[in-house]
Structure formats: structure tokens, C-alpha cells
């Protein structure tokens, strides 16, 4: 394998196999072969940790959600924090009878996890990724139609594992919007703008997922080197955007010849990192890169990238999103939640999912913890200079290094707006 020519492959999706038993695990005989006669691939020790295994599952849901969302808006930027949406769905499953619970759990890849306490593990995961040093905030809420009588047997485990209580609407659109906005402001410490969109009058169940992140690089950028530079929307159109620069950046790098993209990883404080996927051509379709994204693929990348020194330019970003992901979730085999679910563990009245809203904010600038790279990062010796310029459409993944959780994912076609 030539230096920096890293060939990645998409690993089996959390153990998906053509031959599985009822638990979702490949069947194995005493010879160490599955029933097709193929040697069993031993699970990476990283994914044997329950929190990491759960993080991989809901991250794979997140990549699925991103792909659908991106496909529905191929010419627009995409910004998602899928964890907040997954958390709302996982919490809602506490009130679902078996048929509906199975539908939610399959979408979240829980059917591939042997864990008797999914919700307890989820509590542990949330505590880890929202620790103060991470600079990441995430919150989810279940909102029910007015005058609904909710069973206490649903509320208690919801509070225990997810630290939230359901909200019952008053029916007054102005007061309900004000209350939801106040909750979002309290959860996000005022970092996300108040919504002006009214809550629909015909809500049965509304899920709300919100998230905010402001990254701090391990090595900060020199603001004096930030300048307006060209960002190539395609081969013909360019726009001027503020670009941060570091002529001697230490980053982790690889060239994926199958996906025709250059991959770079930059470390952030709090055991976080951002992985960038930069196509070799500005006009290259991003779909093939998007289709390759799984928890296992990203984990492989994290192990294989090589530390190098490069000339780096990266746009300053301050993005926000407010909108529905209802249509996207319908595409993820969750249509029955909107039509004929069984949430009789919540209430005796027939209810169904009406709407799923997502609000998020994401930004990075020159801020960093130090002016020099970590002494533990020794770049490989290169016989040629390497440039990494994020000056054309790219995809980024914000990942929690401790658990492997996908916290944010974005498709940036034009960094001026979301």
C-alpha cells in the first residue's frame, strides 16, 4: 500500500448478514464458520463496549436519515444532528406495544444489539456525549395533543433514562409556541434562535430534536491569516467566503481512490473530531461518498488515516437549520408510526405520530485550545508538499471519539448559508 493511498471499504452494517438467527446475529457452528461456510469476522473490540455498540447503531440510523434528507434536497446544504432525532424516537418506543416498538427498534438498528437494557445504556451515552468539555448540546422532547391522559407507567421510565417529561399542548397556538421556544432556549442556553412557526392545530404526537455545537480546535487558527477567498460552487461559479488558513497544519489524511475523494480529520477539544470528505473535482456527485457512510466505515477511517503536515484552508462556518424531517422518516420504514401505530402503553386513546421537527446550530471559527500542535502528533515525512483546501462542496462528520457517536453531519454546497 503506497503512502497516503488509503483504500477504504464499507464494513458489514453492524453485523448485517444474509444468514442471521432471530436475534439478528449470524449463525455460527463449532468450527468458527457461519452456516454459509464463510469464516466469521471477529467483531472489533471497540464495538463490544455496550455504549459504543449503541452509538454505532443510532449513528447508522443517522447516516440513513442523512442520505434520505440529502436525496430530497440534492441542490441544497444539509445540516443534521441525527442523535437528537434518534433520542426522541428511542424515548417514544417506551410507550409502544411490540409491533410498533419493533418498527422503531429496527430503524434504530436495535435489532442487531444484544442488550437487555437499551434505554439504560442510552442514558449513559447521552451523559458521555453532552459532558461540558464536549461543547455539544442535544435535547429531545415528546409533545402530545391537548387534554391527553398519559399513563404514569410511561412517564417514569422516560424521566429515568432520557431525563425529560412529555409536554401536553394547551390548544392555544401562541402559548404553546412560546412554551416550546422557552424550553429550547433553556436546553440550548440561548444558542438557537426562537422559532416563529406555529405549532399545527392537528397534532397528535410531535417529536422535537434540538442540538447545538461550537467547535474548538486543538490547535487554533491565526485570525490574521483569515481572508476572503474563492469557494467553487462548480467549475464555472465561485463565491467569496472567509477562509481560515494554516500553512503548517497537522492533520490526519488519506486518499480514497474508490470514492475519488481526499479525507482529512481535524481534532477538536473534548475528544471530538471532524472528518472531511473532499471530492477530487468540484462537479463530482457526492452520492457515492454518502452511500459509503456507516459507523464501521468511519471507524475504519479513524484507524487508517496518517498524520501529516499540510497547507490547510477551511471556510468559517455558522450554520443553522429549522424544519421538519417527517418526510425523511416516512422513507425509513417508519410510515406505520404515522398511520396505524400502537402506543397503548402511553394512553388508552388511539394516537399517532404527526410531525418530527429538528432545530440545530453549528459553528466553527479560529478558536482553539493552543497555538502549537499536540506534541504527540508527529507527522509522517513527505517527499512532496500537500495541500488540503476545502474550497468546493464537501461533506463533514462530527464524531465523538470516545464512543464513536455521530453528533452532526453536513453537506456544504455553499458555505454562505444553510
TrEMBL record:
This is Serpin family F member 1. PANTHER family: PIGMENT EPITHELIUM-DERIVED FACTOR (PTHR11461:SF84), SERINE PROTEASE INHIBITOR, SERPIN (PTHR11461). One of its GO terms (cellular component) is extracellular space. The lineage of its organism: Eukaryota, Metazoa, Chordata, Craniata, Vertebrata. GO terms for biological process: epithelial cell proliferation involved in prostate gland development; negative regulation of angiogenesis; negative regulation of epithelial cell proliferation involved in prostate gland development; positive regulation of neurogenesis. Transmembrane segments: none annotated. Belongs to the serpin family. It is found in: Secreted. Keywords: Glycoprotein, Secreted, Signal. Residues 63-415 form the Serpin domain. The keyword Glycoprotein applies.
